[in-house]
Design goal:
mainly alpha, Arc Repressor Mutant, subunit A
Length: 198
C-alpha cells in the first residue's frame, strides 16, 4: 500500500500512486493500516467488501434496481472492480438482484401509471436491463392492453374540460408522445380533441 486517506467512516487506499478502492475506517484501525504497510491484495478486497455490500444494500432499500444500476453506482463510489463483481454476485445469489423480476415489476408499474409500451421499454433499457429481458417483460405486461383505449382513458382523465381546440389537440398529442404511445395512437386520440371545422 502506498497511500491512505482516512476519513470519519472510510479510507481511500492508493497502490503505486493510483486509487485502488475504499475500506472502512474500522478496518484501518482494527488492522493497523497506514502508509507504507505491506498488505496483500486479497486482504484489501476483504477490507473493502463490507463497505461495498453496505452501500449496495442501502441502494436496494431505497428502491428496486437492476444489476447494472448497482454495478454503476458501486463503480461511481470508487470500489475496486473485483469487489463490485463479488458483491453483485452475492446479492444475486441472495435473491436481491434479479433483472427479470425487476423488469416485470417496472413494466407493471409503468402500465398501471398509463405509460405506453415504448416508454416502458426505453426505461428498462436505460436502467440496464437487457433487450431480451425487457421485451419479455413488456410483452407479458402489455399483452392484454389496447394502447388506443388506454390513451383515450388517460387523456379523458387529464383533459376532461369538454373543450375542443387545435391547441388542446397539440397538447394531447405531446402528452401521449411523452408517455411513450405510438405516433398513430397519439394522432388518432389528438384528432378527437381538434376544434370544430368551420
Amino acid at each position: 500500500m502506498t497511500g491512505l486517506e482516512v476519513g470519519r467512516r472510510r479510507a481511500l487506499v492508493y497502490l503505486e500512486g493510483e486509487r485502488w478502492g475504499e475500506v472502512s475506517a474500522e478496518a484501518v484501525v482494527r488492522e493497523g493500516l497506514r502508509e507504507g504497510v505491506e498488505v496483500r491484495r486479497e486482504r484489501l478486497i476483504e477490507y473493502e467488501r463490507p463497505l461495498a455490500m453496505d452501500r449496495a444494500l442501502r441502494l436496494l432499500a431505497h428502491r428496486d434496481r437492476s444489476r447494472l444500476e448497482v454495478v454503476r453506482r458501486l463503480r461511481r463510489f470508487g470500489h475496486h472492480e473485483e469487489v463490485v463483481e463479488d458483491v453483485v454476485e452475492e446479492l444475486a445469489k441472495m435473491g436481491y438482484l434479479d433483472d427479470a423480476d425487476f423488469a416485470r415489476r417496472l413494466a407493471r408499474e409503468r402500465a398501471g401509471r398509463g405509460y405506453g409500451r415504448r416508454r416502458a421499454f426505453s426505461d428498462l433499457l436505460r436502467l440496464g436491463v437487457s433487450r431480451e429481458t425487457a421485451e419479455e417483460a413488456i410483452g407479458r405486461e402489455y399483452a392484454e392492453v389496447s394502447e388506443l383505449e388506454e390513451a383515450r382513458v388517460l387523456v379523458a382523465r387529464r383533459y376532461n374540460t369538454g373543450e375542443r381546440s387545435d391547441a388542446l389537440a397539440r397538447r394531447v398529442h405531446g402528452f401521449l408522445r411523452r408517455r411513450g404511445y405510438p405516433a398513430e395512437v397519439c394522432a388518432e386520440v389528438a384528432r378527437e380533441y381538434l376544434g370544430d371545422p368551420r
